[in-house]
Amino acid sequence: MTYLTRILETKSGEVAELKKQEPERRYREMRGELPAPRDFRSAIASRDGGINLIAEVKKASPSRGVLVEDFRPLDIAARYAELGASAFSVLTDRHYFQGSPDYLKAITQQFSIPVLRKEFIIDESQIYETRLMGADAALLIVAALAPSQLRDYLQLFAELGLHALVEVHDRRELDIAIEQGSTIVGVNNRDLRDFTVDLMTSVNLRRDYPEGVLAVAESGLKRRDDVLLMQQAGFDAALIGEGLLTSEELREFAWG
Ligand SMILES: O=C(O)c1ccccc1NCC(=O)[C@H](O)[C@H](O)COP(=O)(O)O
Predict the structure, then answer these.
(1) 179 CA to middle of ligand 1, Å?
(2) Fold of 3-31+45-250
(3) Is the ipTM here above 0.95?
(4) 226 in ligand 1 pocket by Cβ < 6 Å?
């Protein structure tokens, strides 16, 4: 069983609980009162060949364990805003990443920078929940969804005014993402079977992106040269968690 399969099994149980709270009905009752989502796509699109930062607020991960003992998400987000982050990514999964929807809500309320919900979405109810939470965008993982499900979810995202970062690991998944209508595609450099990281996964797949699809390099970027490699390969944005906590070089990078 891959780690992703394990995570998705846990999510099935969480979704059963979530459905009891009827997020779709709550969304329909509250939609007039919800603030308009901020434009995640425009925020991360490269201008003049620069590369934008999607800064991930991450307490722990399956591959690295606890990254920050004294975790203060608003302080971390403030530091990332100072660095010039174009968007935040906030983990809301409690079980594997020690994240929380409360962290996301607090960050959306405090900052004007668009926020991506980093979650393992396998059901429509989570998309309504994402909108109710105040996120501007969320992750969809091709390996976690049937192609028709991906298409339906992208349509629901658009109806709710949300953007989707669609994550792929190889050429087959990139083709599915494009065929189903994705307009922002991220390549995860981390192999979710054994957690090894290979930055060439992003570099090699970038050549196969069609015109007009935004490209995000995800995971394992730890050094200035890693980011420059992604910039030279033509990525619009780099999504970075651990590296921002550990690398001075990345904190001094001229983003955007
Ligand atoms: O980070 C992990 O260990 C992990 C394990 C299993 C599934 C997903 C995982 N990470 C989710 C992410 O997308 C990363 O947090 C994100 O790309 C940032 O990665 P990094 O810069 O290496 O912290």
Answers:
(1) 25
(2) TIM Barrel (3.20.20)
(3) yes
(4) no
